[in-house]
Amino acid sequence: MENSGEAHFPQIIQGGMGIAVSSWQLAREVSQTGELGVVSGTAIDSVIARRLQDGDTSGEIQRALLHFPHQEIAQEIIDRYFIQSGRKENEPYFDVPKLTLNPKQHAINLLVASAFVEVWLAKEGHDGLIGINLLEKIQMAIPAQLFGAMLAGVDYVLIGAGIPAQIPHILNELSIGNKVSMKVDVEDSTDKHRLDLNPKVLIQELYPLKRPIFLAIVSSHALVSYLNKDEVTKPDGYVIEYNLAGGHNAPPRKKNVDENGEPIYGDLDTPNLEKIKSSGSPFWLAGSFGTPEKLREALSMGAQGIQVGSIFALASESGFTFEIRSSVLNLTADENLKISTDATASPTGFPFKVIGMPQTLSEEELYASRTRICDLGYLRTPFKRDNGGIGYRCPAEPMNTYEFKKGDPNQSLGAKCLCNALMADIGLGQLRPDGRIELPLITIGSDLDGPRRLKEMYPGGWSAKNAVDFLRS
Ligand SMILES: Cc1cc2nc3c(=O)[nH]c(=O)nc-3n(C[C@H](O)[C@H](O)[C@H](O)COP(=O)(O)O)c2cc1C
User: Which domains are delineated in the chain?
Assistant: First the structure.
């Protein structure tokens, strides 16, 4: 097996930010500064399919697909989704297959090829390091996405939002072309459920593939010792993410919430860095570490460096639309701006950071007036039906449907469709029959020190390179 080794670790990891906020353009720019650029794999099949339907204006997806090692699959994807002149303004996007335990071959092909495309584009034309970020919660996409990313030579894999104990083994097996079998959690079931992927069914040759370095994103030292206990589950390193980070956060140990419904974090939720250091695994610190002072502090605490999201999400190469980036930047000027930690918004059940912003689902009336629909379904959870079959449900789907599927109604209250909202954040929101386009919902870290300082330095906006220079200053 070719081993990527850890020639030198980067000091700065540009965090993976879904959906496609950490775009290939952003990751590529960061990577070329000598740090680690990370693309997001979350819902990347929908992202690629929608970009193709919008005409793939600069032709980059088709360029990347030309390098995919199975040209019939590449052609099948172009035939199915590419619209030369772009989708008509009054036409909705044509959706990709939803994730299931028994995916059709096209669904697998699309997942593999989409992850390939995003990583390939991020790596094109330079030899810097590129990683892919996935959410452990979206288990049914993981094997295919890892395989696609590895076909493009991905250097790092970073996975949080769950306990990524199965990943090291899956990476080892995929790199030598062996079949992998991912255990998938099925609610209300005691049976074991698995999703298999045989890489050789798609690509017969090319093995061994480079085995990427795997970093688990966790928030507690307990999880570090749990994963390190066994070579089979031990990652190559950790990103230790504190609860001020943008995106999803680990739930507090004590499940308390304050009067605004925000989780209350306490001492128990602070990772013990001494214990993590003594584990011997390399680690990076994330969540309110996006300033030069915090980078130095992290290094002094024995970390390899930091993982930073928010200042990169606001950089000009990120996937956020120009309007969203500008609005967030304007809002950050307000010293009283508060980023809330919404305990119920995310269907995953994890707290999710939300910025209160006009024309987004953070506004109660807009949220209430949205017609619930679950047509992307990445956050659906499999469950065992009374008749023994497998169903899929999401707390953000129409409430009566969720209850019919025996979902807990309390979980459904306040749940927001992150799939559709996050697609809207990057300008790929779905058009509905009543003419409305899905509304965005913006996540950003609670610590705005970095964005505010960068805004002062670059009032007209900053690039990924400016952000890296700032962190290194
Ligand atoms: C817009 C945005 C989206 C994010 N999405 C993800 C994600 O999909 N997966 C993930 O592991 N972390 C995600 N994060 C967390 C970042 O990768 C990073 O760990 C975090 O932003 C670091 O803290 P900071 O916001 O204080 O810089 C996201 C952060 C932001 C700001």
Answer: 12-321+451-472 (3.20.20)
